[in-house]
Write a structure and sequence with these properties.
The protein is α+β, with helices and mostly antiparallel strands. Helix content is 55%, strand content 11%. Strands 1-2-8-5-3 form a five-stranded mixed β-sheet. A hairpin with a 3-residue loop joins strand 10 and strand 11. Helix 7 runs antiparallel to helix 8, helix 9 runs antiparallel to helix 10 and helix 13 packs antiparallel against helix 15. The longest helix is centred in the middle third of the chain and has 32 residues.
């Protein structure tokens, strides 16, 4: 047997082995990748997310492929699959976001990292936002809530916009000194609003696009934060707020890292809280029996304070005596599903329930579909705070500011929904149609 024949035989055997290996790979999940690069981004963010995801699940099943914000994705909708991705096989699926979201919030933000850097940032954030740090600002939060509601009285307002201002002001309490917040709040808020509008936009950085405007506003945010840091270093004072924690020399964070994380915290602390409050106000207006229970609970707290001769100002302990109102928050998180899904990325090729998830593809567990699963909830789209299992609010600051505002809203005001049309829009989180226009009046009856 001559050498050329042996080499040719080796080539055939190697080719056959490679072909068998390629054929042995499982197929990609079914689905539609949509337009090149854009994919199905516009379909997702231009309609009710329930409509988009339910049509996909009905057509393809509990696992399907798509392309969102320029990223190839595998979307999963069953609780068992979500647990596998997020818990039992989490080492195969690292936390991630589309590059466009990383660029808007800042690549050094805590959301986009793991390991020692993530652990350091988490420690610094928890130092400021941990429960024992929050009770001291209850009176400040209450002042902001009272001022917010008084400014809305007798007017037609866009609920989400007012709640976003409220949540933004509360976030600044823990990030900056009061005098700094007073000077820079309007500039920071104006830039942040533009950044938020571009959060779900396609990453096309051309003049006139939402993404371009968001990136320009983000630059201004970073410049303002850099100015505040410069002035702080000039005074050489120690500050116990979040910015002060980030700026400690022993932490070794650059100004870019600090700015990225401050912007990220503002986004996390204000956008979701404002969305939750908007949905709560809608659900309470539509469910007067539940509203009456909330009102009675809140009035009971005030009556108890009156009997004991205690100051009527809310205290941290009072918020622990609001079980009905707390269940309203939890049920709102389930029904509205503010966070519809999260992003993970396959760290390697993964054989998942007989389908291939290629390395580098995004994986999206659908919280919304799990929260609306009829196997777990008899009437999954009905707002029912007594229905049993709920989602945990988690964030102590967010829960506190919601409870404080609902205390004053339910006991002092009534409101009318001005837009009867049902529907959902993104802003960047799912919101009632048009941000929920309402008219708010002094009194305690929804009509």
């Amino acid at each position: 047997m001559d050498l050329p024949f042996i080499l040719f035989l080796c080539f055939l055997l190697t080719a056959a082995a490679l072909l068998r290996r390629r054929r042995s790979k499982p197929p990609l999940p079914p689905g539609n990748m949509g337009w090149p690069y854009i994919g199905e981004t516009l379909q997702l963010y231009s309609q009710n997310p329930n409509t988009f995801f339910e049509s996909k699940v009905k057509k393809y099943g509990s696992i399907f492929k798509s392309r969102i914000l320029g990223c190839p994705c595998v979307i999963i909708s069953s609780p068992e699959a979500a647990k596998l991705v997020l818990v039992s096989k989490s080492e195969l699926f690292r936390p991630t976001f589309p590059a466009s979201k990383e660029r808007i919030l800042g690549r050094q933000a805590i959301f986009f990292h793991q390991g020692d850097y993530h652990a350091k940032l988490r420690r610094l954030v928890l130092r400021t936002f941990m429960p024992e740090s929050i009770p001291g600002i209850v009176s400040d939060i209450e002042s902001i809530a009272i001022s917010c509601l008084e400014s809305c009285q007798g007017k037609m307002i866009i609920t989400y916009q007012e709640m976003k201002t409220y949540a933004f002001d509360v976030a600044l309490l823990l990030i900056l000194r009061k005098d700094e917040a007073g000077v820079y709040k309007e500039d920071l808020k104006q830039c942040y609003d533009i950044v938020e509008k571009g959060y779900n936009s396609m990453p096309i950085n051309l003049p006139g696009t939402l993404f371009h405007r968001a990136m320009k506003a983000r630059e201004k945010l970073a410049e303002t934060l850099a100015k505040i840091m410069f002035l702080r270093r000039q005074t050489k004072q120690i500050h116990e707020d979040l910015l002060g924690s980030f700026m400690e020399e022993t932490e070794g964070l650059s100004d870019e890292q600090i700015a990225d994380n401050i912007i990220g915290v503002i986004f996390a602390a204000s956008g979701t809280t404002a969305s939750i409050l908007t949905w709560i106000i809608k659900y309470l207006a539509e469910n007067q029996g539940v509203l009456q229970q909330v009102r009675e609970e809140q009035e009971g707290i005030m009556e108890e304070k009156g009997r004991s001769g205690e100051d009527r100002a809310l205290k941290w302990e009072d918020t622990k005596s609001m079980p009905i109102t707390t269940r309203v928050i939890q049920e709102t998180l389930r029904v509205a599903s503010i966070i519809s899904f999260t992003f993970r990325e396959a760290a390697e090729d993964v054989d998942f329930n007989g389908y291939l998830i290629p390395k580098g593809w995004k994986v999206l567990p659908l919280f919304r579909h799990i929260h609306h699963n009829p196997e777990h909830f008899a009437d999954p789209y009905k707002f029912n705070p007594t229905s049993g299992a709920h989602c945990c609010p988690g964030n102590e600051l967010g829960k506190l500011e919601i409870l404080v505002l609902l205390h004053h809203l339910s006991t002092k005001y009534s409101w009318t929904i001005m837009s009867p049309e049902d529907g959902i829009q993104y802003g960047p989180f799912p919101l009632p149609n048009c941000g929920l226009p309402i008219r708010i009046e002094q009194g305690s009856r929804v009509f």
